[in-house]
Design goal:
The complex is a heterodimer of chains A (about 290) and B (about 350). Chain A has about 290 residues and is mostly helical. Chain A has eleven helices and two strands; from the N terminus they run H-H-H-H-E-E-H-H-H-H-H-H-H. Chain A has one domain. Chain A is about 75% helix and about 0% strand. The longest helix of chain A has about 30 residues. In chain B, about 70% of the residues lie in helices and about 0% in strands. The longest helix of chain B is centred in the middle third of the chain and has 27 residues. The chains are: A mainly alpha (about 290), B mainly alpha (about 350). Chains A and B meet through helix 4, helix 9 and helix 11 of A and helix 7, helix 11, helix 13 and helix 16 of B.
């Protein structure tokens, strides 16, 4: 029973991480319908920016966190401006392959600058976050993750519901032409949504880096793990990303714990195929009915 | 009777047969003949073994790329699992020849058919999905096939790999780059001929109709699920055939090369070569293979420059960066690929000196 509970807790923790990693991905898809294969590399870029600022720049944690967020905001803006804007209205395969090409470029750059080794952040989380419930142990990083993800979820919920830019973004996602004719600056919305999504991605990259250490190969693998998560949750639902993440995380830890550790990495994709066959728009996704 | 001219200066077609003809003029046919003569008569006897090795790699990858182009370029279904299908073909040939002692000239097409079956299984989601959802489904297929190849140890020997015996026909063993050159390029010519002709048939037209507008295609009476599956089957047949050739050429195979990176390289070949263009796939395979070799050489040379080694920089990732950059630049600057550049070059010759 203890084993089961520990697996349950681990699954939820891992799942939350997947959920946070998927949030940026979903934001990009929601605003511009781009399937971003470079997401894992965006996570890694954020994590490495932060690493450089903390270890080489010797800046305080809070300052370097804010600087990293700002840097990734600008990076997302530039990616949209130089690479994706020329492709608005182009065929799907070009958009997908462009992000694949970007992924290769970023990965090459990161490997050139920081190398492929595992780096770790200096310890900075307060130990009071450690939770011990009976025989179940939750490491401080996981409770920090929980806190951070809830904060970001609330912030984004408010942003989309209340702020004018958030409402513009939702209107563009809903119907681009109608939004354009009602005076929404669609190009600015695209740029802004990429910038915000890159910021979210880098934030998740930092959280992942705190927990697993910073390694470009691991982080870009998580970028691919995002696909089952978002398909399960629905490609355009941020809450769905979190719930999909938790389900996939539970699935992984239980398969790893009870069946076989080698099946653990492939089980999300097997589930992915079944979801796609049965319910392609996921649990909370917007259903576009089209019968051919 | 076609006139012996370089290129017609307008559209003089009078019937559909002319519209469908592969060569518009005698000149193109003669050019291709001369090119093939040089390829088979001169290249294997004068090139160094290293250059022959590159040519052979290009030939094998071109077969697989033609297959992917049928699926992606003509039918409009994006597949991220082509590298895995290539691996299935390699393993099918290896298992057939080591376990069942099938002669090699049967095992290669048999591997193609086995891969076609696997491809049809992973093409089933295309009945309900299209666009990016199908892309994600094929991505899942890539990971599942990779997992099966590694974990089904009783059949594939897992990470140990399989060593193949040298192929032989009636006592004559095919070994060495020169012998393989003939095997590979005869296969490439046959497969290209088959692909070009299938695209002129009713099947090819149905594929193109599905790509351009699937609802209209269904409305005109094309059973699109059947044709999508057929397209997956043909494309995987090409991948499996190429994979089998590759297994024989490499002598021993492991699961390692058949990863997502290989699938991405295949799609890059199709895009860089030109989507919906059979010669384009060959151009793309040539471009990617040469790019890989040049980058390998360049990073190796850079490693030896004392300044860079003293700075502690590892230049190997430069390959990945340039590969990504090539994809991005082609998509942004010339989305129709090398085939379009080749067409522009030819029409410049034709129109010179009055190109406007």
């Amino acid at each position: 029973m203890d084993f089961f509970l520990q697996l349950l807790v681990n699954g939820v923790c891992v799942g939350l991480l997947y959920g946070i990693s998927a949030m940026g991905f979903v934001m990009i898809f929601k605003a511009s319908s781009v399937l971003n294969f470079a997401h894992g590399e965006l996570l890694a870029l954020g994590a490495f920016f932060f690493l450089s600022l903390v270890t080489w720049g010797k800046l305080p944690i809070a300052v370097s966190f804010l600087l990293t967020l700002a840097g990734c905001f600008i990076l997302g803006f530039l990616i949209e401006k130089f690479f994706l804007r020329p492709l608005i209205g182009e065929k799907l395969i070009f958009v997908i392959m462009l992000t694949v090409g970007l992924a290769a470029m970023f990965k090459g750059l990161i490997l050139l600058i920081w190398g492929g080794n595992l780096h770790t952040y200096p310890e900075f989380l307060p130990p009071s976050l450690e939770i011990q419930l009976g025989s179940i142990y939750i490491a401080p990083v996981y409770s920090a993750t929980l806190v951070i993800s809830v904060i970001f979820l609330v912030l984004f919920g408010l942003f989309f519901k209340k702020s004018s830019q958030g409402i513009f973004m939702r209107s563009v996602a809903d119907n681009q032409k109608a939004a354009l004719s009602l005076g929404v600056h669609v190009r600015r919305v695209f740029a802004l949504s990429w910038a915000i999504a890159a910021m979210v991605a880098c934030m998740s990259g930092i959280v992942l880096g705190i927990i697993n250490g910073v390694n470009v190969h691991d982080l870009s693998a998580i970028g691919l793990k995002v696909f089952p998560v978002v398909i399960l949750g629905g490609l355009d639902s941020i809450g769905g990303a979190i719930i999909g993440g938790i389900i996939i995380g539970l699935l992984e830890t239980f398969t790893g714990g009870y069946l076989s550790p080698s099946l653990r990495d492939v089980v999300p994709y097997i589930v992915l195929v079944f979801i796609l066959m049965v319910k392609p728009y996921g649990l909370f996704g917007l259903v576009e009915i089209e019968r051919v | 009777m076609k006139k012996l001219s370089f290129h017609p200066c307008g559209n003089y077609r009078e019937n559909y047969a002319q519209e469908l003809s592969i060569f518009e003029t005698w000149f193109g046919r003669v050019c291709l003949g001369v090119f093939l003569l040089i390829l088979f008569g001169v290249a294997p006897f004068f090139l160094s073994p290293y250059l022959l090795y590159i040519l052979n790699t290009i030939g094998i990858l071109a077969i697989a790329a033609i297959g992917l182009n049928i699926l992606v370029g003509y039918t409009g279904q994006i597949s991220l699992g082509h590298g895995a299908f290539f691996g299935v073909g390699a393993y099918a040939a290896a298992i057939l020849v080591t376990r069942l002692d099938v002669p090699f000239y049967l095992s290669i097409p048999a591997a193609g058919f086995i891969t076609a079956l696997v491809g049809m299984i992973f093409g089933i989601p295309s009945g309900r999905l299209k666009g990016l959802y199908l892309t994600i489904a094929t991505l899942a297929g890539q990971f599942i096939i990779e997992y099966v190849l590694i974990q089904w140890e009783s059949l594939t020997k897992g990470t140990m790999g399989i060593t193949l015996p040298g192929p032989s026909i009636v006592g004559w063993t095919i070994a060495g780059d020169k012998a393989f050159f003939f095997l590979i390029f005869i296969c490439l010519v046959l497969m290209t001929w088959f692909a070009v002709n299938i695209m002129r048939s009713k099947y090819g037209r149905a594929f193109i109709a599905i790509r351009d507008n699937d609802r209209a295609a269904e409305g005109m009476g094309i059973p699109i699920f059947k044709y999508k599956l057929l397209s997956f089957a043909i494309s995987s047949f090409y991948a499996g055939f190429a994979g089998a050739l590759w297994a024989y050429y490499m002598v021993s195979i492991t699961t390692e090369p058949f990863n997502l990176g290989l699938s991405v390289e295949f799609i890059a070949m199709v895009i860089i070569g030109g989507m919906g263009n059979i010669p384009g796939a060959i151009f793309g395979a040539t471009f990617i293979t040469i790019l890989n070799e040049v980058l390998r050489y360049a990073t190796g040379a850079l490693m030896n420059v004392s300044l860079i080694t003293s700075m502690g920089l590892n230049m190997a990732p430069l390959r990945e960066f340039v590969f990504g950059l090539a994809i991005v630049l082609f998509i942004l600057l010339e989305p129709k690929g090398l085939a379009e550049l080749w067409r522009i070059l030819r029409s410049n010759f034709r129109l010179w000196p009055f190109s406007y």
